[in-house]
Amino acid sequence: MRRNLVVGNWKMHGDIHSNETLLNTLITGLSDYKSADYVVCVPNPYLHQTRSLLENTGIAWGGQNVNQFEEGAFTGAVSPHMLTDLGCTYVLLGHSERRVLFHETNLSAAARFDASIKANLTPILCVGETLAEHDAGLTEVIVASQMDAVMATLNDENFAKAMELNMVFAYEPVWAVGTGKTATPEQAQEVHQFIRQRIARRNAEAASKVRIIYGGSVKAQNAAKLFSMPDVDGGLVGGASLNAEEFIAICKAAN
C-alpha cells in the first residue's frame, strides 16, 4: 500500500518572520495526520531556518533544485552535498518553471536525478506537457520523453538505489500550474496510469511501489477527488502551500 505524499513548493516566496509562522502552524496542524508523508521545498536561503524548526517533527524538507556536480566553479549553483548538509531528504527536479524560464532540459534533469540518488536525496521528478502539446494530443509523447531521459541514465544499481530512496514522480501539466486550471481527476488518473506503465517497462514491481503525485493548482476543494484516483498518490502543491490552513486541509485529504 503506497502512502500518500504531499509536497509544498514555496517557489520564490518567504521571509524569516512569515516562514516561522507558517512552519509552526504546520507543525501543530499536521500533528494528528500520521497516515501520509509531508515535505516542504523552500528557497535555499531558508533551509537552515526550516531545518531548525522542523527537526524532530513529522515534516521533511527539501530543495527546489540541485546541480549535478558535487563542487566546482559553478557560481550560484547548489550541490547535492550542500542540501544534505542542511538536512534535506528530498529535492525537486525538472519543474516546469525551471524548464521554461531557465531552459533546463530532459538531459540536465536526468543528470541531476542521478547525482541526487548518489547523494542519498530522494528525487521528485516533475513531468508534464504545455497547453499546446496537450491540445495537440502529445501528452504521452512529452511525458514519455521526459521520463525516458532519466531512466536511460540509471544503471540497475542506481535504479535499485532510487527505489530504496522512494523516488517520486510528479505529473504537473504546465497548463495547470499557477493558472487556476486543474486536470480533472479522470485526466490526472489517465496520465498517472501511463507513468506507472512506463516505469513497469523497466521494473513491474517497482512501478507498483513508486509514488506518483499530481501538481497543478491543487487546492483543498479538489484535493480529495484527485487523491481518490487509484494512481494518484498525493500532491505537489504550489501557491496553496503558502497558506497554512489550505495546506493543512490538503494534507488532511491525503489521509
TrEMBL record:
Compartments, as annotated in UniProt: Cytoplasm
A molecular function (GO) term: triose-phosphate isomerase activity
SUPFAM superfamilies named among the record's database cross-references: Triosephosphate isomerase (TIM) (SSF51351)
UniProt entry tagged with the keyword Cell membrane: no
UniProt catalytic activity: D-glyceraldehyde 3-phosphate = dihydroxyacetone phosphate
Cytoplasm in keyword set: yes
Binding annotation for substrate: 9-11, 178, 217, 238-239
GO CC field: cytosol
Annotated active site: 95 (electrophile), 172 (proton acceptor)
Keywords on record: Cytoplasm, Gluconeogenesis, Glycolysis, Isomerase
EC number: 5.3.1.1
GO biological process, one term: glycerol catabolic process
InterPro entries: Aldolase_TIM, TIM_sf, TrioseP_Isoase_bac/euk, Triosephosphate_isomerase, Triosephosphate_isomerase_AS
Pathway: Carbohydrate metabolism; erythritol degradation; Carbohydrate degradation; glycolysis; D-glyceraldehyde 3-phosphate from glycerone phosphate: step 1/1; Carbohydrate biosynthesis; gluconeogenesis
Subunit structure: Homodimer.
Function, as annotated: Involved in the gluconeogenesis. Catalyzes stereospecifically the conversion of dihydroxyacetone phosphate (DHAP) to D-glyceraldehyde-3-phosphate (G3P).
Family statement: Belongs to the triosephosphate isomerase family.
UniProt protein name: Triosephosphate isomerase
Organism (species): Methylotenera versatilis (strain 301)
